[in-house]
Amino acid sequence: MTADPIALFGEAFARAKARGEQDPTAMTLATVDHEHRPSVRVVLLKDFDARGFVFYTNRLSRKGRELDGFPFAALCFHWPKGEEQIRIEGAVTRVTDEESDAYFATRPRGSQIGAWASLQSEVLASRDALLARVAEVEARFEGGPVERPPHWGGYRVMPRAIEFWQGRADRLHERRSFAREVATGAWVETRLFP
């Protein structure tokens, strides 16, 4: 019987945290633009379950525009202490406003202010210009809670494929690949040559 790759991810994630990996939530996110040119950056995993893997960002940023325009992405976790890597590919949807609101409320106030102040991915004239925007936002919300900006929220990568890579001696690495069947939603496991 094929194992559940989401449960396997949970076990690997717990191992990475227990080993003291520098930041086990760090994952590389690859997107493409309207001309299918790829771009990649590191974001932080904030939640995962059977529905997928969630991260948050400014939706007006380059990655947000790319995800909204072409809603497919690839993720890669790399945990060097354990010689583990996990790759995930799938369609992308926005999380609900309620989920975004709930997570935003847990962020440090400085990060909440920054979500309003930063025109992420746009050209910045100077550091002083950014600090002036921060001061404006701080004054706007002085003495009260910082509400979530309408342009800021979460995305969920709904996995269609997950590959587990485990480093082994002589580069004879172990690779377990899981693909979701379109008709049934069941996972099919195969092994791959290293």
What proportion of the residues is helical, as a percent range?
Answer: 25-40%
- Class inferred from helices and paired strands: alpha+beta
Number of discrete domains: 1
| CATH A-level architecture | Roll
User: In sequence order, what are the helices and strands, one letter per element?
Assistant: HEEEEHEEHHHEEE
**Number of distinct beta strands:** 9
- At CATH level 3, the topology is Pnp Oxidase, Chain A
Q: How big is the Rg?
A: 19 Å
Mean pLDDT: 96
Provide the CATH top-level class: Mainly Beta
Q: Determine the CATH superfamily.
A: Electron Transport, Fmn-binding Protein, Chain A
* Total count of helical runs of at least 4 residues: 5
Shape: elongated
Strand percent estimate: 35-45%
First-to-last CA distance: 23 Å
Biggest sheet features: 9 strands, antiparallel
Low-confidence stretches: none
Description of the structure:
By secondary structure, the chain is of the alpha+beta class. The protein has a single domain (5-104, 150-192), classed as Electron Transport, Fmn-binding Protein, Chain A (Pnp Oxidase, Chain A, Roll). Helices cover 29% and strands 37% of the residues. The chain is built from five helices and nine strands. Strands 1, 2, 3, 4, 5, 6, 7, 8 and 9 form a nine-stranded antiparallel beta sheet that branches. α4 packs across α5 (127-140). The longest helix is centred in the N-terminal third of the chain and has 15 residues, at 5-19. The radius of gyration is 19 Å and the shape is elongated. The model has no long low-confidence stretch (mean pLDDT 96).
